[in-house]
Design brief:
Structural class: alpha+beta
Number of strands: 10
Number of helices: 5
Order of helices and strands: HHHEEHHEEEEEEEE
Bound molecules: zinc ion
Number of domains: 2
Largest sheet: 8 strands, antiparallel
Radius of gyration: 34 Å
Helix content: 25-40%
Length: about 240
């Protein structure tokens, strides 16, 4: 490694590199670097160390001020004499900086991971509870194979309706089955579905907290998946 820089400016180089100091101080160091070859040499080495510290590790964004903080903690240790400190920086600076940042990043990573884990555990620990089961019957009484049910359940804050239907004819072209929730004669959509080769259909609908209640459910075969009111033939209902 190079000789010890005994210049009085050498201790200010790190501050300059990480953008500290007043404009006057910074201009002073900038001017000094034009004339002092030992400081310029140190500056180049510091800049190299600086550029080797990544901003991003393992696809996790490192907090923007962490890089500055790491640099600070390495180069501003109080109980090392200035000249010795600078030499130490040259020996260990790069390795230490990279190690520290990687370590900080792992910690950062773990905080995110733990939060995600908490979220998952919270959901898993909230049991789902069935509030009501609606039986759906074919609108053509002779067609006993066409039937289904709608299960209204609650899990934590979340209220969902799950439809399980069977014995439905395959759709043709743009046709789609449409589910309607009926409240005081008004129909609102709860979604559309298609059936498999055996005539099974499923649909999940999440009820919003502010959503109006419903007393009945109807399912119709619509010419397409659009439409806000029934146009086609009713096939199932409560
Ligand atoms: Zn100097």
């Amino acid at each position: 490694m190079s000789t010890i820089n005994s210049c009085s400016f050498s201790d200010d180089l790190v501050s300059y590199l990480i953008g500290e100091g007043s404009k006057e101080e910074r201009d002073g160091i900038k001017r000094h670097l034009l004339t002092c070859s030992s400081c310029l040499k140190d500056m180049e080495e510091l800049q190299e160390a600086w550029s080797m510290i990544p901003y991003k590790l393992d696809d996790v964004e490192v907090p923007s001020d962490l890089k500055e903080e790491v640099m600070h903690s390495i180069f501003q240790t109080e109980n090392i004499q200035p000249k010795k400190r600078f030499n130490l920086v040259k020996l260990y600076g790069m390795a230490a900086a990279i190690f520290l940042l990687a370590f900080a990043s792992v910690l950062w990573n773990n905080v995110i991971l733990r939060n995600q884990l908490n979220e998952v555990t919270k959901q898993a620990q909230t049991p789902a509870q069935v509030i009501e089961v609606f039986t759906l019957k074919s609108s053509t009484p002779s067609n006993i194979l066409t039937q289904g049910k709608a299960i209204l359940y609650q899990q934590g804050e979340k209220k969902q309706l799950v439809f399980q239907l069977e014995g439905l004819a395959d759709t043709k072209g743009t046709q789609a089955y449409h589910v309607w929730l009926i409240h005081e004669g008004e129909r609102r959509s709860a979604g559309v579905f298609h059936v498999d080769e055996e005539g099974h259909g499923v649909l999940t609908y999440e009820l919003k907290e502010t959503e109006a209640p419903f007393e009945a459910i109807g399912i119709s075969l619509e010419p397409d998946a659009n439409g806000t009111q029934p146009r086609g033939q009713k096939v199932l209902g409560t």
